[in-house]
Design goal:
One of its GO terms (molecular function) is RNA nuclease activity. It is built from 6 helices and 6 strands. The chain is α/β, with parallel strands linked by helices. It has a 6-stranded parallel beta sheet, sandwiched between helices.
Length: 155
């Protein structure tokens, strides 16, 4: 359950859509609601903003339209593994300095960020939530206060 100080606070969802695509069997127009429902079940009731990062050229126009229509902000990042990781890291750094958004839900498989997620949570009193694919490392899962299997959010 959410700590009282985080219940009403804003939540930024940073979604690595290349490495955690829409799960099979889940409709694009349902993603935003599924994320909101998962958060609400744990008493997170603050405003939610969802930003998806990845190579949008690989996503069909109908899927992009469906995601956008539910408020998901699509951010095209030319994918080269190093530059993509740096781009995501830069966005997470921006979030870590934002006092108005203490909650982060990170949807990714980028385990290279584990230590940063743990540090922001411990030292900056931020709240990190994680949705990850199967077979994520224990340290990656432990870097967040709460973790979900990404595919389970759409069930």
């Amino acid at each position: 359950m959410a700590e009282a100080k985080f219940e009403e606070a804003a939540i930024w969802v940073c979604w690595d859509i290349d490495n955690c695509p829409i799960p099979k069997g889940c409709k694009a127009e349902e993603i935003s609601q599924k994320i909101s429902s998962a958060l609400n079940r744990l008493n997170y009731r603050g405003p939610i903003s969802i930003s998806a990062y990845g190579n949008m050229n690989h996503i069909p126009p109908s899927v992009k339209k469906a995601l956008s229509s539910t408020g998901v902000v699509l951010n095209h990042v030319h994918v080269n593994s190093r530059s993509f990781s740096l781009h995501i890291f830069d966005k997470l750094l921006e979030w870590s300095h934002n006092q108005d958004q203490p909650n982060l839900m990170f949807i990714s498989r980028d385990e290279s960020l584990s230590s940063y997620l743990s540090e922001w949570q411990a030292e900056q009193h931020k709240n990190v939530l994680l949705a990850h694919p199967p077979n994520a490392s224990d340290s990656f899962v432990a870097s967040a206060k709460t973790a979900w299997l990404w595919n389970s959010l759409c069930m």
